[in-house]
């Protein structure tokens, strides 16, 4: 009995436990067969496992209705029922079947676990056998052990099943959160980050591994444009924790990013009142709306520009032409006035062209046909154009003779060059040297335009390329411009898959660099040694 008890309790796998119960039961009562029946909620029984019984019998009798047969009796009354001779006992209903199976005596013991009937354990013999009281006691005792072992194994099975379901749900949840395009931050009631999804990492530049456990106000610093951070008194999450409010209305804010820049986000908050350990959590969903906000700002800037910048030359044109109409000036006096009109009209034309170009770029309506392009002729043409308009600047071209072709739209590339060279001239009002360099490396060519002009303070570098940003310095007050040229250049360079940036040099001047992809990456082109150290320079002054 002890050995049998140990055997059935030594496993938690249900099928193995059932197999051991059947073997041990046969051994205990010197039986040839055994079966375990399971009691269902409606009182019916279903055979769960069997040993030593034929397939024919197993197929014929697989289910018993409530109270049916000897097993039904044992399970219904909770009492052991022993049959000494199946052929003669009136309680046996399927005698012919037992005769065919060669079973003469059997006993059915109820299985009770945690004081609840769970089924029956049957043991069969081939001879007629009057089961002695100690045999029946032994079987009843073993049935209790077996029922406990079955119960444990079932619990274990259910736990494993529940665990795998939880794991599957968790995996699904983290896939969804991981792939969500909106940033999701979960915070505990101490404002500590519990979850920070990849979209949030992308939005803020912060790594989840570094911010989980930190308080959001240490790095996120939500604020409305130009106002103090909301953390200093008006955090939208406070009502979630303090007043158990469930959701806070959507609002548009700015958050800090790891690079020290700010981004516009559309934020909404929701409460999870029963987080782990019964403490509330707040879920913050952030959508990056920086591009939309910038577009809005640009629209307002365009309206401001139209009402101011465009009006100035237009007023001059109107006043000068009215003057000419109202007075009958002799030709020599009229000429400077006409020149002024023409120059203001050209200025107006340039402004309108830039605004339209931005609109075309934003609407994706720019003609763009990249092809293999040789850079030196484009640089020379851009420089020649400017050289004819200035006597105060000298131009220095540093273009290696073996420069490989780039993959670019020649008109667009020329537009970028024209803009950078024109700026170099424009922002060097006192004249000076302007150097244009091109270097091919790896997969791209880097082209740089340097001047010796008014320069750019380092803190202004990041916003140079945003639309309508003009530096406030006194030295550029009288320089014409509306702050769209670099924005256009950046969009055109981006169309090519390149980058553009500026460096402020100590001392006078600034340098603008941009990259464009080479037609064939350099690594793939075998270069004869010494070929790349050809003549550099070619002073065009
Ligand atoms: P715009 O020249 O029409 O104002 P840009 O977009 O070309 O517009 O340039 C934006 C601003 O960047 C300029 O207003 C100027 O303040 C600064 N900037 C551009 N190029 C130079 C340069 N070479 N040297 C100094 N400042 C420059």
Written account of the structure:
The chain has 15 helices and 18 strands. A hairpin with a 5-residue loop joins strand 17 and strand 18. The chain is elongated and about 145 Å long. It starts with a helix and ends in a 24-residue tail after the last strand. Bound molecules: adenosine-5'-diphosphate. The site of adenosine-5'-diphosphate (ADP) has 21 residues, from helix 14 and helix 15. The site of adenosine-5'-diphosphate has 21 residues, from helix 14 and helix 15.
List the helices and strands and how they pair.
Elements: H1 2-9, H2 14-28, E1 33-39, E2 45-51, H3 55-60, E3 63-64, H4 69-77, E4 81-83, H5 95-101, E5 105-113, E6 116-125, H6 133-179, E7 183-188, E8 193-196, H7 198-204, H8 208-211, H9 238-242, E9 247-256, E10 262-272, E11 281-288, H10 290-308, H11 311-326, H12 331-362, E12 371-373, H13 375-387, E13 393-398, E14 406-408, H14 410-426, E15 432-441, E16 444-450, H15 485-495, E17 500-504, E18 510-517
Helix pairs in contact: 1-2, 1-6, 2-6, 11-12, 12-15, 13-14, 14-15
Bound molecules: adenosine-5'-diphosphate.
Give structural attributes.
single chain; disordered C terminus; 541 residues; alpha+beta; five-stranded antiparallel β-sheet; binds adenosine-5'-diphosphate; 40% helix
Concise summary:
The protein is α+β, with helices and mostly antiparallel strands. The protein has 15 helices and 18 strands.
Question: What form results from the Cα inertia axes?
Answer: elongated
Give the ligands present. Answer: adenosine-5'-diphosphate
Largest sheet: 6 strands, antiparallel
Helix content: 25-40%
Give the strand order of the largest sheet, numbering strands 1, 2, ... along the chain. Answer: 3-2-1-6-5-4
Q: How many strand segments?
A: 18
Gyration radius over CA: 44 Å
Number of helices: 15
Low-confidence stretches: 527-541
Mean pLDDT score? 88
Gap between N and C termini: 109 Å
* Strand residues, percent: 15-25%
């Amino acid at each position: 009995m002890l050995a049998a008890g140990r055997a059935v309790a030594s496993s938690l796998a249900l099928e193995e436990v059932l197999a051991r119960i059947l073997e041990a039961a046969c051994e205990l009562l010197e039986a040839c067969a055994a079966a375990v029946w399971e009691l269902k909620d409606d009182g019916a029984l279903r055979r769960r496992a069997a040993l030593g019984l034929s397939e024919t019998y197993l197929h014929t009798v697989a289910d018993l209705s409530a109270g049916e047969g000897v097993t039904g009796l044992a399970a219904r009354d909770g009492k052991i029922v022993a049959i000494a001779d199946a052929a003669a006992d009136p309680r046996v209903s399927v005698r012919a079947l037992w005769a065919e199976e060669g079973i003469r005596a059997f006993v059915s013991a109820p299985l009770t676990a945690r004081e609840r009937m769970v089924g029956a354990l049957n043991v069969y013999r081939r001879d007629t056998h009057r089961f002695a009281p100690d045999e029946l006691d032994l079987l009843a005792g073993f049935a209790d052990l077996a029922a406990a072992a079955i119960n444990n194994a079932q619990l274990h099975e259910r736990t494993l099943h529940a665990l795998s379901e939880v794991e599957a749900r968790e995996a699904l949840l983290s896939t969804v959160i991981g792939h969500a395009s909106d940033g999701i931050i979960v915070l505990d009631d101490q404002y500590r980050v519990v979850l920070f999804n990849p979209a949030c990492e992308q939005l803020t530049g912060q790594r989840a591994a570094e911010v989980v456990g930190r308080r959001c106000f240490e790095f996120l610093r939500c604020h409305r444009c130009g106002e103090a951070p909301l953390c200093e008194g008006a955090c939208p999450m406070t009502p979630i924790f303090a007043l158990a409010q469930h959701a806070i209305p959507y609002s548009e804010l700015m958050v800090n990013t790891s690079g020290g820049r700010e981004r516009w986000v559309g934020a909404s908050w929701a409460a999870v009142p029963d987080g782990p350990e019964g403490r509330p959590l707040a879920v913050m969903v952030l959508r990056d709306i920086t591009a939309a906000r910038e577009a809005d700002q640009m629209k307002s800037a365009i309206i401001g520009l139209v009402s101011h910048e465009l009006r100035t030359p237009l007023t001059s044109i109107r006043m000068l032409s009215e003057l000419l109409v109202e007075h009958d000036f002799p030709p020599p006096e009229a000429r400077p006035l006409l020149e002024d009109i023409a120059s203001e009209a050209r200025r107006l034309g340039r402004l309108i062209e830039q605004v339209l170009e931005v609109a075309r770029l934003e609407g994706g309506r720019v003609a763009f046909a990249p092809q293999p392009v040789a850079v030196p002729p484009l640089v020379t043409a851009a420089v020649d154009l400017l050289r004819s308009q200035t006597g105060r600047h000298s131009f220095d071209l540093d273009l290696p003779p073996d420069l490989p072709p780039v993959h670019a739209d020649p008109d667009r590339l020329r537009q970028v060059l024209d803009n950078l060279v024109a700026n170099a001239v424009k922002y060097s009002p006192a004249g000076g040297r302007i150097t244009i360099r091109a270097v091919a490396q790896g997969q791209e060519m880097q082209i740089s335009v340097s001047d010796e002009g008014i320069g750019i303070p380092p803190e202004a570098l990041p916003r140079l390329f945003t639309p309508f940003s003009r530096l406030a310095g006194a030295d550029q007050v009288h320089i014409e411009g509306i702050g769209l040229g670099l924005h256009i250049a950046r969009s055109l360079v981006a169309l090519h898959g390149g980058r553009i940036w500026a460096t402020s040099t100590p001392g006078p001047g600034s340098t603008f660099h941009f990259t464009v992809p080479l037609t064939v990456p350099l690594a793939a082109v075998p270069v004869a040694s010494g070929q790349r150290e050809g003549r550099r320079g070619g002073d065009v002054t």
